[in-house]
Amino acid sequence: MRDLAHQLPLRLATGAFVLNSGLTKRGADDAAAKGVHGFASTAYPFLGEMDPKKFTRLLSTAEIAVGAVLLFPLIPEGVAGLALTGFSAGLVGLYLRTPGMRLDGSLRPTEQGVPLAKDTWLLGIGLSLLVDDAVRMFDRWRG
To answer: What does the alpha-carbon distance between residue 60 and residue 97 come to, in Å, rounded to a whole number?
Structure first.
């Protein structure tokens, strides 16, 4: 556990943020669910056929699960990193694919895109957890 102490602040802050996001969406009313679903469907058209309430419930469940994985320190960093990387890759895709989120011809966010651009931090944290796990496994293998 001592080897993982440097990850605890990172996992706790990120896990609490993601868990809160999921819990907030859990009780979404019809209007809120339609808004979340409509926004996601713009970037990922295949989601358009899904019921907005069901989509928002599934998104909420995914966020709660990812947050819980990050918050529970006995779950290996590789598992936590994989969960966060997979989830945040979808969020970064939302940022990249949604019109008006980025300045023309740039990755830099517009004012409206800043809240989504922050999801790149989640991706970086997930990748860092994966790298930590890979380095630790390599060190054990090397002896």
So the answer is: 21
The two tokens of residue 94 are 């939302």
Q: What whole-number distance in Å separates Cα of residue 17 and Cα of residue 27? A: 17
Distance CA 57, CA 71 (A): 21
Express each pLDDT in 57-114 by its tens digit.
999 999 999 999 999 988 999 999 999 999 999 999 999 999 999 999 999 999 999 9
What 3-state class would DSSP assign to 44? coil
- Does the pLDDT at position 4 exceed 80? no
Locate the domains of the chain by residue range: 2-142
For tokens 């899904």, the residue is 50
Task: Please give the Cα distance from 52 to 107 (Å, whole number).
Answer: 29
Nearest of 139, 129, 141 to residue 4 by alpha carbon: 129
